[in-house]
Amino acid sequence: MIVEDIMTKAVICGQMTDSVGMLEQLMNKAGVQCLPIIDNAAQCIGVISAIDLIQLHAIQASLRGDVQAWEICTEPVVEISPYQSLTEAAELMVSNKLHHLVVTGAEGLLGIVSSMDILEKKVLRQGAR
């Protein structure tokens, strides 16, 4: 099985100038735990996770409204091809201590895959045996 088979294709993205409050609203509304952050040319410049926002709250609660996405996003972006295996995706997540990978191709951002996507697929596949 490959990444393309399980990735989320309708990716919600944040803009690099979005405030932390805007990012929180976007994540809550969409029900996602991670947002790729894109620049004006629609290129992914980083990723912000729910954990990043929790950490920001813990250390800079008073500055939260003034902080923009580009200031706190995790970079460089760890990318994976849609044609790589789920095992390769899992290994990349473990080696980089990540729960989400941005899926890219010649067309740019194609999707996102999470550790939960992989775990759900592996557990469901084993349960079907």
TrEMBL record:
SMART domains: CBS. Keywords: CBS domain. Residues 7-67, 73-129 form the CBS domain. The keyword Metal-binding does not apply. Gene3D superfamilies: CBS-domain. Pfam families: CBS (PF00571). The keyword Transmembrane does not apply. CDD domains: CBS_pair_SF (cd02205). This is CBS domain protein. The lineage of its organism: Bacteria, Pseudomonadati, Pseudomonadota, Gammaproteobacteria, Thiotrichales.
